[in-house]
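Page 42, continued from yesterday. The earlier attempt failed because a stray header line got pasted into the input along with the sequence. Redoing it now with the clean sequence only.
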Amino acid sequence: MSFILPCRLRLRGAVILTLLVAVLGLTSCAAPPPSGAVPTTPAQVVVPTAGAPAIDTNMVFELLKRAEVAQSPLRETLLLQASAYYQQMGDYVRMGRVFEVLHPETLTPEQHAEYSLQYGDWALYQRHVDDAARVLLDPALNQGLSDTQTTTLHSLRARLFERQGKMLDALSERIAQSVHTPEAGQAELSNQIWRQLLAMSMADLQFLENADSRNPKEDQLLAGWLALAHIQREDAGNNARMAADVQSWRNHYAEHPAYRHMPAELVVSDTADSVHPQRIALLLPLSGKWGAAGQAFRDGFMSMHYQQMSGGGGAPQVDLVDTSASPDILNTYQQAVTQGAQLVIGPLEKEQVQTLANQATLPVPTLALNSLVQEQRTADSLYQFSLNPDDDVAQVAIAAAANRFRRALVIAPQGERGERLAQAFVKPWQQSGGEVTQMRYAAGTGNYSAAIADALGVDLASGQMRAGKTLPEMVYFSGSGSDAAAVMDALQRNGGKDLPVYATAEVLDGRVDVRTNGLRVCVSPWLVNAGPLHDAHIAVPTNANGRLFAMGADAQALFSQLPQLTGNTSLHVTGNTGYLSMDSQRRVRRNLVWAVMQDGQLVAQPASADGRF
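This time it went through. C-alpha cells are written below.
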C-alpha cells in the first residue's frame, strides 16, 4: 500500500525527527520521566484513550528521543505511540511530521493497522480525502483488528463517506460501528445515527428498507432505526399516536440501543395533549406594506394544514386576522382570544411583537414571528420564531470553528447591515478563540483586487506575502451573488485561490456565475429541495417570499410541539427553514444545511455527524 503525504511534509525523516525532539525539548520544563515509562520492547502500540488526563509533553519527548536511537520494530512502536499522543492533543501538524519518518512497508501487521487508523484520521482532518480513502478502504485493513480498532475503523469510514457525500454508506458504517461499540459509547453514537436519519429524504429511507448487509445484527439495528424515523415523520403533531407507536416499537426492539437512548423527538410528554389547541388565530398583515409577506406565510401554513387534514390527523380551526386593518395589536390580540383562540400565531411585524413582549402575561401560548433583544424577559407563554439572518451567520462561524480554522478574513459591504452581519460572525468566532482580519467594500463596484490583496497581506505589485503577514485559513463573505463572484475572482488572482469561502443564503440575491464555484453556502433545507414541503410534493414559490411560505409551513408543524420543545433543548423538529429546536428563552433555533455553488446552482451537501463543513 502506498501512502502519499502532501509535498509540504516531504522532508528527510531523520531531520524531521530531530526537529520534533528539539522543539519538544525546548517546550518541556519538567524532567523527563524514568525510562520505565515507555516500552523497551516492540510491544503492541498503546493508544491514549478519549477522556484521559492531559498529556505530559515530557512523555512524548521521551518517546521521540528513544525512537532516534532505537532499532526496528521498537522504533516504529515508539513513533506510533508519540503520534497517538499528538492525535489526542489535537496537534495534527506534529502528527503529520511523525508520519513522514515512518515507512509503512517496514511495519509489522499490528503496527500497520494502527498506522492506517491514525493516518486515516490525520488525512480526514487535513481534507486529503483521496489519501484517506486509499488507506481506510484497503480490504487488508478488515483483518486482525481488535474490537476497539474495528469501532474506530467504522467511525473513520463513516466520516470519509460523509466527506464524499455518500450518506447511505456513512450510515451503514455507523450501524456497523454500533455493533462493536460498548454501552458507554452508545448514547453519542445513537445521536449521530439519528441526526443522519433526520437529514435523509423519504426516498433514501425507502431504499434502506430494501438494503441487506448480510449481517443479521446490523440489519436488525437498521430496521429499528428506520422504524423510528417513520414514526417521527408520520406521527408529527399527533402525540397520542406517536406515544402508542413508540411503545409498540419498544415491544419489538427491547435490545436496540435506541431503547435506552430514545431520540428526544420521540419522547412525548404525558401532558402534551392536554394543551393541544382546537382553535388557532393567525395574526398576519394581509394588506399594505407587509401584505405580500403575510400572505406568503399564510399560504405556507395552510398548505400544511390541509395536508394534515387530508392525512386524517385532525386539525384545529384556523381564524385569519388581518393585523393591517387595526394599528392596535393588543386589541386585535385580545379579540382573537375572546373569540376562542387557544393559541395565537403572530404577529409578524417587529414593533407589534415588541408590544406583546412588553406585557407581563399573555393569556394563551403565542408564537410570535419575529425576534427581540435577547436579554429581554418575556411572558412565559410567548415564543419567538424568526428568519433572523444574524443567526444564519453565527452558524457559519460555528461550522468553520468545527473545522479548526483559526484565522478568518471577514469581507462585508459598507453600511449598517453589512456591519451587523460581519459582527454576527466575528462575535462567536472570537469567542471560540479565532483571529479575525476584516475588509469592507462598496457593493456593486466590482473591482476588489487591491482591497483583497491588502486584506490578505499580499503585495499587489509582486504578488508576494508582505513581511510578518500570514494568509487566513478561511473567508466569510457577506453580500450579493454578483459581488461574491467579483470577490472570489479577486481572491483567485491574489494568492487566495485555495481558501474556503463561506456565505449565507443572502448570496443568492443577484447574479451568480461560475466564478463562485466552490462557494460554501449555509441555507434552509427548502432551498435544496429538502424538508416536509418537498416530501409532501408541495411547491415553494420561487419569488422573494418563498422563505415566508416555508416559514409558515414550519409554524404549522411547530405549534403542536411547543409543550415538548419547551425545556428540552435537545429536541428537534424537521422543518423547511431548518431543523428546529427551542432554547431556554423560548426562541426557536434553526439548524441549517450546507450547499456548494456549482455553475450557478446550489448543490446540497450531506450533513456530517461532527458538524464540520
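Notes: DSSP finds 23 helices and 15 strands in the chain.
Reminder to self: strip header lines before submitting.
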